[in-house]
Amino acid sequence: MKTTLLKLSVICLVTTALAPLPLLAKHHEAGERTAIDVAITKAALTAAAGRSDQDKARDASRKPAEVLSFLGLETGDVVLDLIASGGWYSVAAAIATGPEGKVYAQNPAAALQLRDGAYETEITARLAANNLPQIERLNSEIAELGVPDGSIDVAITALNFHDVYNGFGAPAAIGMLLALKAKLKPGGVLGVIDHAGDPDGDNEAYHRIDPALAVAAAEAAGFTVERNDELLAGTDDDHMTNVFDPATRGKTDRFILKLVKPE
Predict the structure, then answer these.
(1) Residue-wise pLDDT tens digits, 115-173
(2) Which of 195, 25, 10 is nearest to 108 (CA)?
């Protein structure tokens, strides 16, 4: 799906995953934090005036409140949305973490140039419509995020990991996970959402990944892994169809990995 946009970033990442990165201004310390309430978050997402009807309609299949709750998001948390594309998840996370939180919506340059700049147009319009001061755009490469080490409570990357693994192999995928692990606070969480593929399927052609391969890469990067196959289960998905097929798009089985950095 985004193989082209990841190419230069991932190649660079394999050799620079643990290099010191420039720091951003330190975000203010939040007050007492509590785990997000799913019902309250769902209501806030529905009521948000800046979210379009189309964005709200996606909640039914993407279940952002439930996903972010599964990942352990708390109010006031600092969140990194890696390869945010049009920023749909960035907005959802910002509403969930609240005004005392912080959300970095990161995109590499190539992502913003795809489809004649469609993602640039989309994220610009979406962030303007929602007017959430806790969101900060990061137009940066994966290997040079510009986020301080040990500063992120929850990172999330949705429907991107298969491109790294399928396009560049396990070493590159592990390298990306190591780079993100360095950004997490001790006990911080990286959420990986992706289209489920079968072990013997043509997952590169179908834009999928065998969840077991993602788990193995995460464990190799030193994460504790919790896997959820039920929350984003699709509708009659045989795992053997391209995710962009009109009959399948938006209905795939998606798995979630909750990757926890050791304390």
Answers:
(1) 778 889 999 999 999 999 999 999 999 888 989 999 999 999 999 999 999 999 999 99
(2) 10
Which among 155, 85, 158 is positioned nearest to 123, based on CA atoms? 85
d(CA 10, CA 158): 16
φ, ψ of residue 24 to 5 degrees: the values are -95, 165
C-alpha 126: how far from chain center: 17
Per-residue tokens: 95: 């509403």
Which amino acid is it at 198?
Answer: D
Q: Nearest-CA neighbor of 142 among 81, 189, 93?
A: 81
Q: Could you tell me which of 11, 68, 21 has the C-alpha nearest to residue 182?
A: 21
The one-letter amino acid code at 104 reads Y
- Please write down the HEC assignment for all residues of 124-146: HHHHHHHCCCCEEEEECCHHHCC
Please state the pTM of the whole predicted model.
0.88
Cα separation, 115 vs 3, whole angstroms: 13
Question: Residue 28, by phi and psi: left (phi above 0), alpha (psi -120 to 50) or beta?
Answer: beta
Looking at the DSSP bridge assignments, the partners of residue 35 are 74
Write out the two tokens for 192. 């990986």
Contact 123, 105 (CB under 8 A): yes
Report how far residue 75's alpha carbon sits from residue 79's, in angstroms, rounded to the nearest whole number: 11
Q: Which of 133, 86, 77 is nearest to 107 (CA)?
A: 86
Instruction: Give the whole-angstrom CA distance, residue 128 versus residue 252.
Output: 30
DSSP category for residue 238: -
